[in-house]
Design goal:
Strand order of the largest sheet: 1-2-3-4-5-6-7-8
Shape: globular
Number of domains: 1
Helix content: 25-40%
CATH architecture: Alpha-Beta Barrel
Order of helices and strands: EHEHEHEHEHEHEHEHH
Structural class: alpha/beta
CATH superfamily: Aldolase class I
Distance between the termini: 25 Å
């Protein structure tokens, strides 16, 4: 069991009237990376962040970016995104969105970025296992992609357990995206989940500072792993309000 995991801020949930302040406060609060959701209104029925939003955040922080491309045929325009990122940033694509996803992943690798795939709730692990062998990160969606604030789909838990097993053989990082609550972090971090994308369920729109929330998430997980501290006792003694 481990308490070593990364917390990623879902920037589509941020306050765009004060984006510079949001990036600064999240960085100071100890967020590990900025999750950028790009949607084209075709692969998913919504529009989210733009290329300009991504480029601005990349220039406003030294923290890494996790760019989630929810677009049809990302290979067509992948260079536009790659030229606005830094070496070491992550780019996720959806395998179903591309005729030859391995070609797109190779472009990401050649540009010095971290290649990743995103797996929808309705996508089986078996259909994309070849892709898992050539990526460094897997973003597993616990909600259908396209909108924030959705309900968790409980059948995804079985898929996550399967991916955690495969990770021991294939050595990729596994990141949770969607309806990421405190309870799910406390359940899956000890199982070995490498990262969690935090949105409106835990991080944004709360009457508490980002620093307080991020510290509480880490402290609660540490307490849940401590045999001398009962999780219920920690909750009862802490002013946690999500």
């Amino acid at each position: 069991m481990t308490s070593d995991f990364k917390l990623n801020a879902s920037m589509m949930c941020a306050d765009y009237g004060h984006l510079a302040r949001e990036v600064s406060q999240l960085s100071e609060a100890g967020i590990d990376s900025f999750h950028i959701d790009i949607m084209d209104g075709r692969y998913v029925p919504n529009y989210a962040m733009s290329l300009n939003d991504m480029a601005y955040i990349a220039g406003a922080t030294t923290k890494p970016l996790d760019v989630h491309l929810m677009v049809e045929h990302p290979n067509t325009h992948i260079e536009l995104f790659l030229r606005n990122l830094r070496r070491g940033d992550t780019v996720y694509i959806h395998p179903e969105a591309e005729y030859h996803p391995s070609t797109t992943l190779q472009k990401i690798i050649n540009a010095g970025m971290v290649p990743g795939i995103a797996i929808n709730p309705g996508t089986s692990v078996e259909t994309i296992i070849e892709m898992i062998r050539i990526v460094d990160k897997v973003l597993v969606m616990s909600v259908n992609p396209g909108n924030a604030g959705q309900m968790y789909l409980p059948y995804v838990g079985t898929k996550i357990d399967r991916l955690l097993e495969l990770r021991r053989e294939m050595h990729f990082e596994l990141v949770w995206d969607g309806a990421c609550s405190i309870d799910r972090i406390l359940e899956y971090a000890p199982k070995g989940m490498d990262g969690f994308v935090l949105g409106t369920t835990v991080l944004f729109g709360k009457k508490r500072s980002y620093a307080e929330i991020i510290k509480d998430v880490r402290d609660m997980n540490k307490a849940s792993l401590d045999k001398d501290v009962k999780r219920e006792d920690y909750f009862n003694n802490q002013p946690v309000r999500y």
